């Protein structure tokens, strides 16, 4: 399973990259705004900087919601760097745009997915990635992992090549469960990734090893 970091923060991207397990980055307008990145030129330059930091895919989201606007923005984003994946919302014009991008060899990430029906449409249109929002589904008292499992089952039966990118990850358990039910990728905050490192028995064991080593050197 691939690990993407969901942020526009360059320090966090560098830390994840230096850890040696980073496969890519996902961003969105909210994450850009959180870092104080506003305006088309600033956003484009920020995408370029991220692409220079990471070897893998970088999802860059369009703002337009009409077909022509999505196409224009997507083509401009895709031209920035070979790592760019155009992030397109799960709407009617978004599906049409994904089909167009697929025919032109432009990779896409269909975002804001909340049902298996939407997942089927995105795969039929040729999306490279599909982003179901696990955390937001859980917030509605539904089961985000059940959705991932169902999509993985459908894709396997139908032979769809679209990769399931589990998004809206809130904690380390979400990462583990996503791997368990068949997600190809998870995108999450750095804190969730670092949380996988932690276990009290590891801390206890390491403390004991170091204590025994210290005794032996006296």
What features would you describe in this structure?
The chain is built from 11 helices and 8 strands. The chain has an 8-stranded parallel barrel with strand order 1-2-3-4-5-6-7-8, surrounded by 7 helices. Helix 1 links the parallel strand 1 (2-6) and strand 2. The termini are far apart. Helix 4 packs across helix 5, helix 5 runs parallel beside helix 6 and helix 6 crosses helix 8 (144-158). It is globular and about 75 Å long. It is 54% helix and 17% strand. The protein has 218 residues and is of the alpha/beta class. The mean pLDDT is 96.
Q: What are the key terms here?
A:
single chain; about 220 residues; alpha/beta; 8-stranded parallel beta barrel; 11 helices; about 55% helix; about 15% strand; globular
Number of helices: 11
Query: Order of strands in the sheet with the most strands?
Result: 1-2-3-4-5-6-7-8
Q: What can be said about the biggest beta sheet?
A: 8 strands, parallel, barrel
Low-confidence stretches: none
Integer-rounded radius of gyration: 19 Å
- Could you tell me the number of beta strands? 8
Mean pLDDT: 96
Helical amount: 40-55%
List the secondary-structure elements in sequence, H or E: EHEHHEHEHEHEHHEHEHH
Question: Which structural class best describes the helix and strand composition?
Answer: alpha/beta
Q: How does the overall form come out from the CA principal axes?
A: globular
- β-strand percent reads 15-25%
* Terminal residue distance: 46 Å
Short description:
With 218 residues, the chain is of the alpha/beta class.
């Amino acid at each position: 399973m691939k690990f993407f970091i969901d942020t526009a923060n360059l320090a966090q991207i560098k830390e994840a990259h230096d850890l040696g397990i980073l496969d890519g980055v996902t961003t969105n307008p909210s994450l850009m705004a959180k870092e104080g990145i506003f305006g088309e030129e600033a956003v484009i330059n920020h995408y370029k900087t991220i692409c220079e930091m990471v070897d893998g895919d970088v999802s860059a989201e369009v703002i337009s919601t009409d077909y022509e606007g999505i196409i224009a923005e997507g083509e401009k984003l895709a031209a920035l760097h070979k790592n760019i994946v155009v992030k397109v919302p799960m709407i009617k014009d978004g599906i049409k745009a994904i089909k167009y991008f697929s025919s032109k060899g432009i990779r896409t990430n269909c975002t804001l997915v909340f049902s298996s029906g939407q997942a089927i449409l995105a795969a039929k249109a040729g999306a490279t990635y599909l982003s179901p929002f696990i955390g937001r589904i859980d917030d509605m008292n539904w089961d985000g992992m059940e959705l991932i499992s169902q999509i993985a089952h459908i894709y396997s039966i139908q032979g769809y090549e679209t990769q399931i990118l589990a998004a809206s990850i809130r904690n380390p358990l979400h990462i583990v469960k996503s791997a368990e039910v068949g997600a190809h990728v998870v995108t999450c905050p750095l804190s969730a990734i670092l949380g996988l490192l932690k276990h009290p028995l590891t801390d206890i064991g390491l403390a004991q090893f170091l204590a025994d080593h210290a005794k032996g050197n006296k």
